[in-house]
Known about the structure:
CATH superfamily of the domain at 10-31 and 42-116 and 180-266: P-loop containing nucleotide triphosphate hydrolases
Number of strands: 12
Strand order of the largest sheet: 8-9-10-5-11-12
Number of helices: 9
Low-confidence stretches: 1-9
CATH topology of the domain at 10-31 and 42-116 and 180-266: Rossmann fold
Order of helices and strands: EEEEEHEEHEHHHEHEHEEHH
CATH architecture of the domain at 10-31 and 42-116 and 180-266: 3-Layer(aba) Sandwich
Radius of gyration: 20 Å
Shape: globular
Mean pLDDT: 87
Amino acid sequence: MDPAHTPPRADPALAIRIEGLSKTFRPLRLGFRSLRWVRRLPPVEALRGVDLQVREGEIVGLLGANGSGKSTLLKILATLVLPDAGRVEVGGVDLARQPGEVRRRVGFASADERSFYWRLTGRENLAFFAAFHGLAPRDADGRIDRLREEIGLDALDRRYGEYSTGMRHRLAIARALLHEPRILLLDEPTRSLDPIAADVLRGILRRTLAGRKGCAILLATHDLQEAQGVCDRIALLHRGERAAFGIPSDLLRGGEGLLGLFRALAAGGDA
């Protein structure tokens, strides 16, 4: 084998490895062919050649404006969207070759969660989804009780429709953890939360999930302070490309903060 083409040796502490990830969405044509009117929608390049790594026990923030590619990247890692190009390894497993194994290794939670049943209690909802993971009722009950303590699900036996926004976000994270994944993908988990609820949830991510349990967390957020305060490293996405990646102190070395980086990118400058 040509030494130049020898694949890199796997890093046992590397939970996510992304190399050259690209994705373009090609919208369907709209119109009426019989009337000779067809609107051709342009393709949308969501990701272009993105490289990224996340280690075990680390929180990496995905920061960027709307349309920068954050949600698309998370959905690819969760096997909900197929990439066009690039290589993705999750927990040492090639996503293209073994998507089912990748699904077993990751948990995905979004602020736009719509799949919970409002008339069921939080516990009943979790038990329902635990069955999809093949968990026996007794095992599911044990895991749900542990998650109640770890995530602070005090209202677990109340109906989901009575939950506050903060409790709904916590329940979504609990559902993502039911099958005990080592990798957690979170899409704006603190969006719409009041400052106290958001701070509690960040503490759960930092101290319990990343700290005590050693989970690797990839966190998409718009919140600059959240990214600086809770993330070990930050990846700044701009128009589908990785514009910057590093620890917060290195990214902020210029003194203008992340807001300054955003402004430079918006103005077409170099981040």
